[in-house]
Amino acid sequence: MLIEHILQRKGTNVVTITSAEPVSQAVEALREHNLGALVVTTDDDAVEGIISERDVVRALADEGARALDRPVGDLMSTDLATCGPRATTNELMVLMTERRIRHVPVVDQDGLAGIVSIGDIVKSRIGELEDERQTLHDYLAGR
């Protein structure tokens, strides 16, 4: 399945934050939107990085509450893995496994086109397997 099909179902809305915002603002956005990561963008909406719950937890463990006052840019991951809308779920499963990441921004020629999580990939794969199971069942039943 193509990533663009997942985005058609889940939507293309991406919650973003700038690197200058305080980490406390990122934490609030993660909670408010029930997300595991935010895409960090520049003022002109170019993708600059990603900040995840994991990044925040590590900073809190290292620095305590003062980490919340630091700018997002200090904690965000800049070694960013992205994909295009025509990437496949299989390609993303490999990428996410190899890089040990759970969120991948989707970028097209116009910029940020969406974000896909490991949960989106699993949900898609379960749907594919269910379709295959039903097809085999129907075939064996002579339908």
In short:
This protein is of the alpha+beta class. Helices cover 48% and strands 19% of the residues. It has one domain (3-140): CBS-domain, CATH 3.10.580.10.
Annotation keywords:
single chain, 143 residues, alpha+beta, CBS-domain, three-stranded mixed beta sheet, two-stranded antiparallel sheet, 19% strand, elongated
Q: Classify the fold: give the CATH topology.
A: CBS-domain
Identify the overall geometry. elongated
Secondary-structure element pattern, one letter each? HEHEEHHHEEH
Sheet/helix structural class = alpha+beta
Level-1 CATH class name: Alpha Beta
Strand content: 15-25%
The percent range for helix content is 40-55%
- Major sheet: arrangement of strands: 1-2-3
Mean pLDDT over the full residue set: 94
Given as residue ranges, the uncertain stretches (5+ residues, pLDDT < 50) are none
CATH architecture: Roll
Major sheet description: 3 strands, mixed
Number of helices: 6
How many runs of DSSP E, i.e. beta strands? 5
Termini separation comes to 25 Å
The Cα radius of gyration reads 18 Å
When the domains are counted, the total is 1
What does this 3D model show about the protein?
This protein is α+β, with helices and mostly antiparallel strands. It has one domain: CBS-domain. It has six helices and five strands. Helix 5 (89-99) packs across helix 6.
